[in-house]
Amino acid sequence: MGNKKWYGLFALMFAFLLILSACGSSETVTDNGNDSGDTTTDSNSTSDSSSDSNTDEKKEPIKIGVLASTTGPLETYGKQTIRGFELGLHYATGGTMEVNGHPIEFIVEDTETKPEVAIQKATKLLEEDEVDFLVGSSSSGDTLAVLPLAEEYEKIMVVEPAVADSITGSEWNKYIFRTARNSSQDAVAGAAAIAGDGVKIATLAPDSAFGHDGIAAFKEAAEKLGSEIIHEEFADPAATDFTSNIQKIIDAKPDYLFVVWAGANSPWNQISDMKVQDRGIKISTGAPDIAALTTMNALVGMEGFSVYYHTLPSNEINDWLVEEHKKRHNGEVPDLFTPGGMSAAIAIVEAIKKTEGSTDAEALISAMEGMSFETPKGTMTFRAEDHQALQTLYAIRLEKVDGVDYPVPVLMRELSPEETAPPIRNN
């Protein structure tokens, strides 16, 4: 009778061990290449399962907090950045979503294009989610508000797509790296298109850090080329009526109107309605995203610059981005800020490879200063002095192209990273 008890107990224990073994042999792979549609609280992580019985215990995940405007006037920019960032992680890890054995997770928080909200969301990412990196944001104002937190918590922040010069200038700290171009890089490209001896230029921009930094940088670049800035006009960033702003520009009688703008509430329709070009004033600007290009049919022939349009770069990574974006997003092509999001993700993965998986801030700074990496826009390099990524921009002309219902930025010439290198402003 005692032996039967022992045999029964042994059988029960053996069955229990078999159950434990079966439970421990499966891992979930969540990356299916689909767009979830949820961008405000999205947490994406993937990891490869392995049948190797000798595989070490899974390493801790590397967490990235992405700050973006997924609502508000810069909503489209935020969503472009997020799409690009996810594609960048996929590309840089060869589809594994792992680097040096660490699964990569990213968490998206909506800043609502409000600096006070950006601070709250960044604090939540740093304290509750314990992220290893911050990325963002769509707005320069949001980004400037968050920069001190990167320093306080000693975490690397990769700035994308905010462009205000002060981010890598007066407000910079050593934890800040920027894959986005800055206002001075835009300014060099914009000035190269129109400035020259005796050319009179008026400017229009939003009354914001983005607008003021952009115009200040453009003015400096244009004056170096011999132009005179005869009028500067700053409008409410949330404005929908630009009549009074445009009338002041008309009254100034410039040769060119150079426009710096971001957001869905663009002034292009009113510039056309008020027949600015019919008055002998030529328009120039950075070619915006596709939604804004659809409002610019009256500006066909305009010469300016572009940060990105999917047909401008010629390299394998951009080809991959265009094709993969079409596959994942119902045939849509990547837009203005999609490659920036991808570049930020690639930069982070390449930095982690260089540190062999370490997310220690000092190790990352050492690895990233002077680091070159390949992107959809070609080679970018983090300048050691201010961590601004030097990169290619494009001199373009807006032209009508068969089969496209908006003016298309057509390449006049590439502006090299050396040519568009901005002044170092972080003292």
From TrEMBL:
Q: Where is the Leucine-binding protein domain?
A: 61-399
Q: Where is the signal peptide?
A: 1-24
Cross-referenced Pfam families, in alphabetical order?
A: Peripla_BP_6 (PF13458)
Alphabetical list of Gene3D superfamilies matching this protein? 3.40.50.2300
Compositionally biased residues, Low complexity: 30-53
Give the superkingdom in one word: Bacteria
Keywords of this protein's UniProt record, alphabetized? Signal
Which residue ranges does the record annotate as region Disordered? 28-62
Family to which this protein belongs: Belongs to the leucine-binding protein family.
The name this protein carries in UniProt is Substrate-binding domain-containing protein
